[in-house]
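Work package 3, deliverable 3.1, input record:
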Amino acid sequence: MTDSPWCPEGTVLVGDAVVDLADPGKAPRRIPSTYADPVAWMMADAVAAALDACGADAPAELSEVAVIGISEHATRHTLRAVAAGVPAGRMSPMRFAAAGPGSLVGVVCAVFGFQGPTLMLPMPVADAAVVTRAMITDWLTGDAASAAHVVVVTHECAEDGRHRARCFVLGRRNTTRGSQLV
Amino acid sequence: MTADVSVTAGRASADRAVCVTGMAWTTALGNELGEVWQKLLSGCSGIRELPADAASTIGRAAGLGGGDFEGGELAAPPARRQVALAATTAGAALRDAGCEPVGIDLFVLGSSLGPHLDDAADTSPNDLTVLVGKELGLGQSPVSLSTACSSGADAILVAAALIRGGVVDRCLCGGIDLLSAAKQLGHSTLGTASPTTIRPFDTRRDGMMLGEGAGFLVLEARSAARDRGARVWGEVRGWGSSNDASGLTAPDTSGAGAVRAVRRAFAKAGVRAEDIAVINAHGTATKVNDDTEATCFAELFGGTGAEPVVFATKPAFGHTLGATGAIEAIALLLSLHHGVAPPLPQCEEIMPGFPLPLPTEGALPLTGATGFSLTLGFGGFNTCLVLERGTHEGRAT
């Protein structure tokens, strides 16, 4: 397995995956009776594939799995849909709750049960590299580390309209199970 | 930016301690730190009737009014107003720090929904963050962050982590959200808005009231602050966060997620429950939020003998969503600086089982230098910041 650009010193790539779709709405809904932005389901699909790629090294302690989501496009689809109804006084509470960019990470955590530290960066993926690597370091190998694994899930919309979600699952080098994290 | 530097596990050097050297806010009670603090101590509230033409579905909220906000750019369409309010407030934080924009290594801006439900312009959150940075004259690419009601606190968390990690020396960070017809409609349909008034931790609590505002802080490595003789409001000692993994609007009412965030922050700060003198609670006055926080505090402080005072600012400022974490961090630093917790007069009948003292009868004096702020956001985002009062006559040493 090769190192990813998201791997700071002291960390290792445990698994990764890419999901490429013309329409993110084709990604499966993983929580019944719940509305989420299509990008959230697409991100969840990428996370599921990356966890599969981890095999036996997949994170076991869900309270120690941190998540960083990165997408400049973020929840634009839902924001537009909700905004369209505002002048007429129409608002779906479920869509309103799913309109915030943070909901992308909230959905990933709800699907997989991740309870570690979480962030959502609604910005270009390339511009987020420095801050993402720094947060991975803080959570995995910094003083009073608070996670055993970090799930980085990115989403980008290409010029041809295709959507791509990538997920990288990172751990500490020589991570031992049952570590004494907070 | 300096190269990516790892911190030796368990020991951040004193030079990498994270100092708060500047702060500013724009709130429904005004924008001068001292003036607004005095209003908080007097139990004032910025919640008022909204103008009839405000497309209001709620009727009352803590909007910005008077002075600069009656005209010009701060009365402009939503996207322009968001940029103007952020730039105005962030610029005031730079002036408070005595710091030029060229000295800022990183700009982190948090917002929940921004103006994007109310503005026809097809802008992304990052587009607006970039515009704010340009208006301030900041040179580097900014960081856009959105973790619902934890956005402002998470902006501080990220900035502090990058300073502690040796990646940058000086950050401008904070949060902003505007009051808007769409947000009022959304919270009205969700049932989170109070039909009466906001009463955190009161038996009669029935929801929150929206507000708007901005809060920004300048954070510096102690060495950088010392080198320029900066005045220090306090220190970001520790930070911690967690996710409830329980869905988009419902918190984990067991309090376990909030407890995890606070314990992570304690570990990072190297403090214990007994060291905490004061807590700025999220205090939205929704039943589930207040229950969650009460359970969290009982778990954290039960059996320790510690009894920090708990206060909440949302009766004064309204719920400012993405700004609230930054505004509440500033309020906590002022509370520690002055050694007093502002009153919570809206709480007349304390909810059964609330485990810690609340300043219901008036402001309460503090007997320590350390406190924490807790935010709980939609999407399960729990964030805790452990802050400490400045020392050494306010100068970095």
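The CA atoms of residues 188 and 291 of chain B lie 21 Å apart.
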